[in-house]
Each structure stands twice: as structure tokens, then as C-alpha cells.
Amino acid sequence: MRTETPPLIRLEEYRPSDYLIDRVDLDIRLDPHATRIDATLALRPNPAGRAGAPLHLDGDDLRLVSADLDGAALAADSYTATPSGLTLHAPPQQPFALRLVTEVDPTANTKLMGLYRSNGVYCTQCEADGFRRITYFLDRPDVMAIYTTRIEADRTEAPVLLGNGNLVESGHAGADRHFAIWHDPHPKPAYLFALVGGRLGKVETNFTTQEGRAVTCAVYVEPGKEARADYALDAVIRSMRWDETAFGRAYDLDVFNVVAVSDFNMGAMENKGLNIFNDKYVLASPETATDGDYAAIEAIIAHEYFHNWSGNRVTCRDWFQLCLKEGLTVFRDQEFSSDMRSRPVHRISEVRSLRARQFPEDAGPLRHPVRPRAYAEINNFYTATVYDKGAEIVRMLRTLIGPEAFRAGMDRYFADNDGRAATVEDFLAAFAAVTGRDLSAFARWYERPGTPRLSVAMAYDPQAARCTLRFAQSLPGETGQDAPPLVIPVALGLVGASGPLTNATCPDVRNGVYVLDRAEAEIVFEQVTEEPVPSLLRDFSAPVRLDFDLTDAQRMRLLAQDSDPFNRWQAAQDVALRLILDPDPARADAFADALGRFLDGEALADPAYAALVLTLPSEGEAADSLSADVDPDAIHRARFDLRARLGRALRSRLERLDAALAPADGAAYSPDAASAGRRSLRNAALDLIAAGDPEAGTQRAAERLANATNMTDRLAALGTLALIPGQAREDALAGFAERFADEPLVLDKWFAIQAQIPEPGTLERITRLKAHPAFTMTNPNRVRALIGTLAFGNPTQFARADGAGFSLVADTVAALDSTNPQVAARLLTAFGSWRRLEKSRAAKAGEMLNRIKAIPGLSRDTADIVARTLG
Ligand code: 0A1
Ligand code: ZN
User: Fold this and answer.
1) Going by DSSP bridges, is the β-strand pair 145-154/19-29 parallel, antiparallel, or unpaired?
2) 118-165 pLDDT, tens per residue?
3) Within 10 A of 707 (CB to CB), how many other CB atoms are there?
4) How far apart are CA 417 and CA 421, in angstroms?
5) How far apart are CA 475 and CA 483, in angstroms?
6) Catalytic residue among 304, 335, 361, 392
7) Residues 319, 378: contact at Cβ < 8 Å?
8) pTM of the prediction?
9) What is the ipTM score, two decimals?
10) Which of these, 320, 545, 581, 759, is most buried using a 10 Å CB contact count?
11) What are the phi and psi torsion angles at 563 (to 5°)?
């Protein structure tokens, strides 16, 4: 059997559903192998649909037990039912009730879509199209219904029963069983349906909304781990409060529940009133979670909560509009985290992750517009482009119209679209309405794939005290006429020898922003009394690649003098990136001097920021800056040498910082941003010391490991040791594994650290670790930690010249494809940049892709990725 390219679903072919469902009544009897779903759907013809059309309900792997229409069994010739759909050939043309009983096996559900069991806990995942694995349905987001769900289960097996909305009744159902009835008064699409049943512990608290509604908020976790849920619960409360102040959005039910499960394909899911989470993004204690984990928990709790408005109250008309909820909600969670932490530090981490994940995607065969026009498998479009570039578009919109108009536009969007399934056009219309502006040119950001290039040239005339900046924009692969320009907000300023030139004036710059809306343009600054260094794209005001030639000295002026913290950091990154791509000892020493002055001046005033300035661009970022012939070994070596040189040059300063930042004896761990910042600078210092002097580094890291009182320091020390071959490393790894033998989420860190070692022995190590008792291919977190880290976080070993790294990842994709296609397909996206590798590696990667393509019966998920990657 040959795998065919899966058929495409196209945006231009959208049409409204022929039928609507107003109410859904579910009676679900949980059973490990034979769960019965008794569903009554209140249906009616859609006035906007085709009158008299057959009714086709989606299904996936379903077994129909019985079907009734308005109380009478359906005649055998009036419908067709298969595992993948149910069709009523001539449905009534007035409202009718369709009652369907289906049966599913949650224990056998390894795809983790629909109803499944994770560690014995019943849970669901319905986005994007999992509800059709529970019952036959119009499983599309523009069909919104009011749900009432009765859940019945064995009392010992599932003492906790949770659903969407508010609890209306609960009680006994025979000797060993019990039930709960949940009612959700808000109409919602099926992808937001959820239920949970299991043995769970909880922490809970109350919140009163600005509208005076008393809400019980709870976080449910594996019994015994309740204390590790406190931070997540606190993040829920802070999110609720923040959305009221920042966006005027209040919560709308009497309960808000979060449940952590250990087997989950993604990060978390915003089901109405019942968010279900990958436990990695809920559970935290100082002993088991790093500062990074705490920050991720805070951000993802916020993200899912914010979806209650941006996604649930206002949902998407179709899956092409995914960025409407995801880009907007990422923007909202980024703003939340910025308010909770340091805004510049957070902005830098947002941009780092955009560049690490979205830029390469946008430059490779998997590139797509933020609003795609066609897809074969929607689950492959939960991408960095939809999420992160989608968020950047919302951010640019705010920059263009200003914060007040932005807030007014958001209010208008929510008011106009509440209870509706909306589109990107509806979103932009709200901002056009409140500003009176034509946003049609701006809307091109949603349609045009690829990262734009912004080229800038400067001319300075000292006699006239005039500085001219010439801008040109282009999109890779597009030329002149057929490529109408994008609207690019360029935040900028001029920087002199001792600081920003605030007297310079330019009529085209308003509130520090120049809006480039043509292919080419020139702007002129007057009263520029000395030759300036332009600081361009401040705060990363647009997701573009900037081409602007500066000398190292000019960049170091920006690092020292610019008022924009983002561009100060960027200046140091630019110098470092050039030194990685084009090593030069003399320039590296000058860079070290500049970093030294920076550290002396302000490292202790803002340690989190200083840690970012000290962190060199990643190997991936260096690779992404090259358009062809990427040799990961050469990049690794150059980056390694630069780190070593900086470590030696800055040694005494780094040691002083290390001492100054040491926690006081007996000080309790706190995950707050300031404390985390001190730890991150201290650990960045350790990393550089070790790079410059592996022997001293080994000793210091072993010491830090021995004395660590929290996971952040412990893991940083282990990470430092992991880069230095030798017995100390092996002892440290063994000690860590023993200490955390019963902590799967901590062992994931241990798997990941080893999968990241940039040495040829790593593949053998990974093969050994696959046999470790804690490793299992059925848990997505384990697979991502061990194999995903190799594929996405270890460029030299994944792209090993002999092809062994590609082969190991391809074997995993092949093995996973039949049990969990979503995770398999996502892993396969690691091959996305294969064509940019130097020839022999690219050839090896191509062979692997073709091998996967030839697998008989490949899932649609994997077939789609492989077809597009080979493209
Ligand atoms: N809407 C979720 C992401 C998500 C998408 C698909 C899933 O299926 C496995 C799960 C979660 C979010 O943005 O957080
Ligand atoms: Zn989301």
C-alpha cells in the first residue's frame, strides 16, 4: 500500500452547516472498556444552510448502539452509520431530537483524543476534532449548543466527577455507583466539551468577580501531590484579577476547575469551566520544579483562563481562524506575564522563542500563513506561526493604533461577537470601527507566509545635522508587483556617544514609531548634532529580520547607551552571532571587554536581564541565520570556543558575581521573578566559568549540586556538568536519577539533559535510556524529553554526519505513528530545516523522510507533515 497525499480542506470552500444543534443532553456511564454515551441532540435546519440536505454527523472510531428520532427507532433504510460518520438521508425540516447511543473503550484510546484514561483517570480532549470520538456530531466550531452532562461512574474508581459549567445535582446510582449532573449555560462548540472522572486530590479557594459573582476555583491533581498545586491555584486567581483590570473581562460560572493529567498531547486545554492540563504545567515544588517551570505554569494557567473570553465566549467560525483565539490569547498571556515579572526580560524571552521556533518554520517547507488557506490535518496547525506570529500581529496592531484605541477595539470585539463564532475579519472590523482606520493593508500579515526582511541604510550629513534612513522591505520568494507591501511598525530612535539624541526630530515618527507601509521609503531626522547609531525595531516592534550593517563598536554603543533594553540586549546578541559565524579572536576580546563593563555597571541591579545579555545566541539561531550549507558541527565548535574565551576573559568578574549572588544560608526558596533572576545570573556565570575552565567548572558545579536546595540550582549544575565529559558527570547523573526515581516529571529533565549532550556517544546513551524503567513510549512527556530533545535541542547529534541521529528520530516517529499520530507528526517537524543543511547531511535526512513516507497505512497527521516537508 502506498501512502497518498491527504486531501485538502480549503477556506474558500467554507459554507455554513445545513443543520444546527441547540442543546445536547449527555448521559455518560464511565467504564474502563465499555463507556456508554447516551446523547440527545436538539437539531434544526439552519436557515443559512441548504434546505432538505442530508444530515451528516462526524464520527471517528465509534460504535453505534442505537439511534432514535423523536422517540422512535430510526428505520434501517433512513440512515447510514459507520465508525467515521452517521448520515440521515432525509432528516425532518423542523426541529427534531436525535438520540444516539455509542460505546467507546477509553482504556484502548492511545491517541489521547476523545475520551481516554491517564493513570486510571478518565479525561477528554476534544480540540480540534476529538468530540466525534465520543458521539456522532456536527463537530465544527460554528455549531454551538448548550450542554447538560450526566456522568455516572463506579464510586471507588472515580469519586470525583467533573464536567463543564456548574454542578446541578449529584448522588448515588445503585450500590457502587454515583453520578453528577453538570450544566453549562453558555453555548459552545463541541471542541470545548470536557469531563473528568477519577481519584483526585484538590486545593481550592474562592474568588469574587468584579461583577460580584462568587467563584470556587479548584486545582485537581494526583492524590498526595496537593501541595504542588498551590502555585497553579494562585496563578488562577491572579489571572482572573488581571483579566478584569487589563481587559475588563470577568469570569462567568460559579466554578472554575483545573485538572492535571499525566498523559496529554499538548500543554493544556481551555474546556469551558474545566481546563485540563498536562501535569508538567501544574505541579510545582521547589524540590521538583525550576524557575522556568514556575514561569511556564503561570503563563499556561493564564493562557487557558484567558481563553474563556478569547476562544470560548467568542469562538472561531472554522479552524482556519485558529489564530483568532490562539494569537490573541498568547498576546494576552504574554502581557500578563510581563505585568507579573520584568517586562523587558519577558519580551526578550518571547522573541527568543519566536526566533527559535517560528522563524525556522517560516523559512522552511512547513511555512504557512498565520491564517492558513488549506489544511489536510488541522492538528498539524497548532504551530509557532499561528500562536506566536499570531500574537506578534496583535502586538503590532496595538503599536499602530495605541493602547487606548486597542483597549476600545478589544471591548468592541467582545461586545460585537459574544456568543458567536467569529473570523479574523470580525476582529479587525472592531478596531476599524473604533479608530475609523482602514486596516485592509495591515490584514496582509494574516495572509502572507515568510519572515519579511527589513533592510535599512543610513546617511549622515554633519554640516546639515541631518540623518537619513532608507528602508526597504521584502518577503523571501516574492517579487515587486505581485507582493503588495506589509504595514511594518518600526519603533526607533537615534543614539549618540553618550545617550539617545532626544533633540532630533522627524515628522514621520510618531510616539517613537515609524510606520513603513511601502516597499521602500526614506525618512529624515533634523537636528542630529553628532553621527548617530540608529536603534531600530525597538522592543522588537515587528516580526522581521533586520538587515542593518553596524560595526561592533556601534553595537557596543547601543549596548551601553540605548534607552531600549531590548535593543541593548539585541546589540550584544548581534555581535555574538557574528563572532559565531565568523570567529575572530581580537573582536571576541573586545566583545568581552564590553560585556565586562556592562556587568560592572549593572549586573547586580538587574540580574535577570544581565543573564540574558550573557547568554549567547543558540546554535539553532546561528543555523537559522544561514540560508544554505549549514554545518551544525562548525557552529557548535565556534559557539563553544566563544563561550570558553568569554569565560576566561570574564573569569574574575564571574566569580565575584557568583559570590555576590549566593543565597543567604537557610534562605527559603521563592519563585518570584527577582529571586529567579538572581539564580539565573549566578547559573549563567557558572556556565561561562566552566566553559572557560572545565576543571574549575566541574568542581564548582559539583559543589553547587551538592549544596542545592532547589531544582533550579540543581539542574543548572547538572547541566553544566553534563557538558564536561568524565566521571564527575556520570556520578552526578546517577545520583540525580536515584534521588528522583519516583518523580517522572523530574526524570524528564534528566532524560532531556542527557539527550542534549553534544557528543557522538549521545545516541547510544539515548538508546540505553529508552530501556530505563521510567521511560515509556505511551507518555508524550517522556517521548518529548528524550527523543524530542535530541530532535529539537541537539543539532550536532540529530544531524550527525552519518545519519544515525535522523534514523533514531525517524524510528521513533514510525513506532509512534499508529498509537499516537499527533505526537509522531510533531516530532517529525524536526526535519523542517533539512534542505538548508550541507549536502551530505541533507541527503541523509531526505532518505529518512522518504523511508517514513513509504510506511504503509501512515496516519494522516504524519503523512501530511512528510509530504509537505519533502514538498
Ligand atoms: N487550545 C489549546 C491547545 C490544544 C490544542 C489541541 C489539543 O489536542 C490534543 C490540546 C490542546 C491551547 O491553546 O492551549
Ligand atoms: Zn490557546
Assistant:
1) parallel
2) 999 999 999 999 999 999 999 999 999 999 999 999 999 999 999 999
3) 12
4) 7
5) 8
6) 304
7) yes
8) 0.99
9) 0.99
10) 320
11) -85, -10
